[in-house]
């Protein structure tokens, strides 16, 4: 029996005790085994077990099993373990955090073999983006108040007071709804992106919907060109001219934590991902 062990410690002191722990994932990148055995009777799998250390790493015999699974010796990639319950306990009592103890076990007749599985944990530039991660999904009232966007309802109410009376009257008579922003939640799992996006699991992209009929009020954020086009459309001066389009007028960026083609963990800011305002263009 060949047994290897690895110790992983994460400082989570920055997490406040009143934050709700939704999910915690321990992620380790398993490196490919370079020397493949040619003998058919040699097992190509090993057992990986993740433990919570109950005391310091000097006493690894005192541990609690969190998860275990079989892995191919010759595969490479990220392995994800659910450690929500353990990390929640650590957040409540930081002194109980002694880290994770990972053991790899393989039964073989070759007594000289050691280092069954290698995980990326060196500070080298090549493996830096593959180092072990502890990804936390929390629900904090403080964070939510900063990140929340004003609702479409509150925007429309504020803009109604600035709209010219003629425009307000025209909007009241029109059976069509004026251009406005509506919610659009994008679930990355539903669109098939959950395999490479680590966080978030989805986001509210919003979208624009409604008509741009003359007269265009201030709340419709219309360009001069859209105003002229709406006049031509309303007067039916040209059959080829359509109504101006209700489209995003302002957009903001979104941070994504994801795996690239080489299984490196990347944090990137993607521009123009969220519609924050709609207008007639």
UniProtKB/TrEMBL annotation:
<dbReference type="InterPro" id="IPR017948">
    <property type="entry name" value="TGFb_CS"/>
</dbReference>
<dbReference type="GO" id="GO:0005615">
    <property type="term" value="C:extracellular space"/>
</dbReference>
<keyword id="KW-0732">Signal</keyword>
<keyword id="KW-0964">Secreted</keyword>
<feature type="domain" description="TGF-beta family profile">
    <location>
        <begin position="162"/>
        <end position="281"/>
    </location>
</feature>
<dbReference type="InterPro" id="IPR001111">
    <property type="entry name" value="TGF-b_propeptide"/>
</dbReference>
<dbReference type="InterPro" id="IPR001839">
    <property type="entry name" value="TGF-b_C"/>
</dbReference>
<protein>
    <submittedName>
        <fullName>BMP2 protein</fullName>
    </submittedName>
</protein>
<comment type="similarity">
    <text>Belongs to the TGF-beta family.</text>
</comment>
<keyword id="KW-0339">Growth factor</keyword>
<dbReference type="InterPro" id="IPR029034">
    <property type="entry name" value="Cystine-knot_cytokine"/>
</dbReference>
<feature type="compositionally biased region" description="Polar residues">
    <location>
        <begin position="143"/>
        <end position="153"/>
    </location>
</feature>
<dbReference type="GO" id="GO:0008083">
    <property type="term" value="F:growth factor activity"/>
</dbReference>
<dbReference type="Pfam" id="PF00019">
    <property type="entry name" value="TGF_beta"/>
</dbReference>
<dbReference type="Pfam" id="PF00688">
    <property type="entry name" value="TGFb_propeptide"/>
</dbReference>
<dbReference type="GO" id="GO:0005125">
    <property type="term" value="F:cytokine activity"/>
</dbReference>
<feature type="region of interest" description="Disordered">
    <location>
        <begin position="143"/>
        <end position="164"/>
    </location>
</feature>
<keyword id="KW-0325">Glycoprotein</keyword>
<keyword id="KW-1015">Disulfide bond</keyword>
<dbReference type="InterPro" id="IPR015615">
    <property type="entry name" value="TGF-beta-rel"/>
</dbReference>
